[in-house]
Amino acid sequence: MTTPRGSRRRFLFATTALMGVVGTATARTIEGLPWTSNEVYPPAEARPGPWRFFTPEEGAAIEAIVDRLVPVDELGPGGKESGCAVFIDRQLAGPYGRCEGMYMQGPFPTNPLPTQGFQSSVTFAEAYRRGLAGLAAHVARNFGGKKVPQLSGEELDRLLTSMEKREINTPEFNASSFFDLVHNNTMEGFFADPIYGGNKDMAGWKLLGFPGTRYDFRDVIARPNTRYTLPPVSLLGRPEWNPGGRS
Amino acid sequence: MEPGGAQLMRRLPRKDAVIIGLGWTGAIMGHELCQAGLEVVALERGPWRDTASDFNIGTAPDELRYGIRGELFLNNSQDSVTARNKMDQVALPIRKWGSFLPGNGVGGSGVHWNGHTWRFLPSDFNILSHYRERYGEGIFPENHSIQDWGISYDELEPYYDKFEYLAGISGQAGNINGEIQPGGNPFEGRRQRGYPTPPLKGQHAQDLFSKAATELGFKPFPMPSANISQAYTNPLGVTLAPCTYCGFCERFGCANYSKASPQTTVLPVLMRHPGFEARTQCEVVRVLKSSDGKTATGVVYIDAQGQEWEQPADLVIMAAYQLWNVRLMLYSGIGKPYDPSTGEGVVGRNYAYQANSSVNGFFDNTHAFNHWAGAGSLGITADEYNGDNFDHTGLNFVGGANINCTSFHARPISARPIPPGTPRWGSAWKKATREAYNTFANVGSQGSVMSFRDNYLDLDPTYKDRLGRPLLRMTFDFKPNEERMSAYVTEKMVPIMRAMGAKQIVANPKKGPWNVVPYQTTHNTGGAVMGDNPRTSAVNKYLQVWDMPNVFVLGASAFPQNAGYNPTGTVGALTYLAADAIVSQYLKNPGQPLVQA
Q1: Domains, chain B, ranges and CATH?
Q2: Cα–Cα distance between B221 and B383 in angstroms, integer?
Q3: Rounded to whole angstroms, how far apart are CA atoms B387 and B117?
């Protein structure tokens, strides 16, 4: 019932050519094991530099917030120095910010059940734009015309706490859901691989004691309940392996 | 044709068999059919994926990309489902996967699974008659539709064996030909031989759990694992490498060739088979039927350019993920759709899930759990409260759960437990997170979910996929039966955690309502269930559609209800059973039912 591979393949091509379907097909007909050397899909490295998504004012506000969510203290650097704002900016400028890959067709209900999850037509990028505007207006109103980065650490902590506890939600500014979004993305940035712009010098991993992407821990398995002492490694290696580089 | 109606559908040359979906079931079936001399095409709606190109060691261990953003999963923009808890609610689309994570692409969910590879208990297969005989009719919950599988464990045993030896599963047998083996699961059904490779090595948490559980009278044993402990060459001649405990397993492809997947066990042979061809990014939109409606004549699929093709075939194998098998049957008019108001019809009937729970333990800093050095199935299990391994008299529920202690990862975005009451941010959070990260351990349970008349699948009246077809609608909730089961088993887990030495213990039994957001398990089952009666099952014991004998529906869609184990072992076994029936019976007399209704 089978025919030799080559002839069958020619036949299929002939068929499609006859039908005039020539193309930039991403659909593939595969016989045998397809192999292309060096065919890997590395992520694009996020590098410091100008904001890609935030306006300067938005960026400054986010930097102030991430530095309260992950403060500088005796345990290590804070969210700003660790690149959390850069991480969020690059994420929002990319597919994540546009909710690519998510189901974004309507109708969008106004009263979903609590068990039905995300039901908004507003992309994450747009949610930041609106949320930061709402926060700026709230701060200007309640802190004598100040901007977010001009608040003291204590003031900002109190403000973030009131956002988290749903104390300042208004119909125009859903402060608690914006807080949850920023909190979630800040944690992603602080603990994701440094290749995405946050977790600079693997600060998040060092805080935890996560050894990173070493991929072979048979030495650890051989000695249960033993503290691991080697420094972490990321997809970019280690800073000292990349003079002038980042990881 | 559906979208852009101007194009003509083009007809391709006939194949002996068309397989819809190239994951575990499609790859195994493809190989068995090609070996029997058939010319087979597999249509896969996702991309081609392979170890060196897509799960490369320099890119694979990336938590954000794969663990959080979910690059290996089906995009919800390509296809999703709507969900609700009860029939009088409006179902809404799952806009981003949460509770479960369907795979996409060649290898399917078999690429990103954790690798727990179980056999169900013998009494799981005749659960209705078994409980009825032991406890009487009163044990069954209100509105249930629990039913026997139409097949016995003993009938399935040779096929479990075949799947385990294909995949090189690492484990410790508990019952070889009726003889109980020390260190194995004393409750398991009899197996013809031990596992192909020895168990994985345990971590500190497993050591503590084994000791504590043993002292409390349990008989803990190593979890059977598809992350394999040593190099292994399977009967097809494909070699897997030993697991390195990298901690990037579930949600990730394995860069080490250490996790059994279609890529590491079947595809290297299947893809080179002269009778086999795969077409990727080709989505089957419906199965075609003969004019009398009694036979499938092939399928229609849409390629990446939106071109519609007809692929005629003598045999149609539905090998998509459980949800998509059911949906394609509903689209294609195969089998009678289930109607919950009358209880009639079979397609969409008996959707079930899994009821898992956890007991979290925070330990003092003399412990270093190092869960980041983990493997998907690195764990110890105790089966005393699974299935009907314990007396259910007076308990007021059917089913049970396995109790386990695993170390499968400590990836930093998602695995940072902190004791209840700790702030979520700020210096106090940093301190608590640092302290708990390596001094935290978990005892979990994996619980059965029974089938109920109002837990089911149908087509959504409002929401459409990108091709304009209705999304599948899930109506599901955890019922009191499952909540009572989970509360009971979780209570049995707390003393183990206490004996392990935790200084603070937090128990989380499963409670409704089911929420689509937090990840729970990708063990969706039912909707095209197997059985011995065409009024209550969509397929017979060989997974053959009752009223369309040249269509076979593989996968967990055949489970009449779900057991207290991960499904893949049973899915693999059922696939080998169906393949054997096709090759040794069906092909001798094609187009005929293998079981008379």
Answers
A1: 10-588 (3.50.50.60)
A2: 9
A3: 17
Contacts of B313 in chain A (CB under 8 A): none
Instruction: Pinpoint the alpha helices (H) of B418-559.
Output: 426-437, 480-500
Considering only alpha carbons, which residue of chain B is nearest residue A190?
A: B413
Token couple for B370: 């190092």
Q: Give the separation between CA A116 and CA B96, rounded to whole angstroms.
A: 11
* B411-470 per-position pLDDT tens digit: 999 999 999 999 999 999 999 999 999 999 999 999 999 999 999 999 999 999 999 999
Please name the residues in contact with B186: beta carbons below 8 A apart, sequence gap of 6 or more.
B174, B175, B180, B219, B383
Asked whether the beta carbons of residue A217 and residue B433 sit closer than 8 angstroms, the reply is: no
Report the interhelical angle of A84-92 vs A124-142 (nearest 10°): 130
The gap between the terminal CA atoms of chain B, to the nearest Å, is: 34
Contacts of A243 (CB under 8 A, 6+ apart): none
> Cis peptide before B480, with omega less than 30 degrees from 0?
no
DSSP category for residue B586:
G
* Closest in A43, A70, A225 to B65, CB measured: A43
The first and second tokens of residue B119, run together, are: 């056999």
Indicate the domain borders of chain A: 56-102+120-207
Give the mutation candidate from A26, A37, A217 for the B interface (greatest B CB count, under 10 A). A217
Determine the length of chain B: 597
The Cα B338–Cα B473 span in angstroms is 12
Contact B401, B447 (CB under 8 A): yes
- Angle between the B568-584 and B153-167 helix axes, to the nearest 10 degrees? 100
In three-state secondary structure terms, A240 is helix
Residue B466 has a CB neighbour count (10 Å cut-off) of 14
Give, for A218, the enclosing helix (H) or strand (E): helix A218-221
Question: Which two tokens mark B196?
Answer: 């192909």
Tell me the nearest-neighbour CA distance from B204 into chain A, angstroms: 5
Please report, to the nearest 10 degrees, the dihedral formed by the alpha carbons of residues A238, A243, A245, A246 taken in order.
40
| Beta carbons of B76 and A101 less than 8 Å apart | yes
> Which phi and psi (to 5°) does residue B119 adopt?
-100, 140
Give the integer Cα–Cα distance in Å for B347 and B451. Answer: 14
* Structure confidence by residue, pLDDT tens digits, B347-370: 999 999 999 999 999 999 999 999
- Whether the CB-CB separation of B330 and B319 falls below 8 Å is answered with no
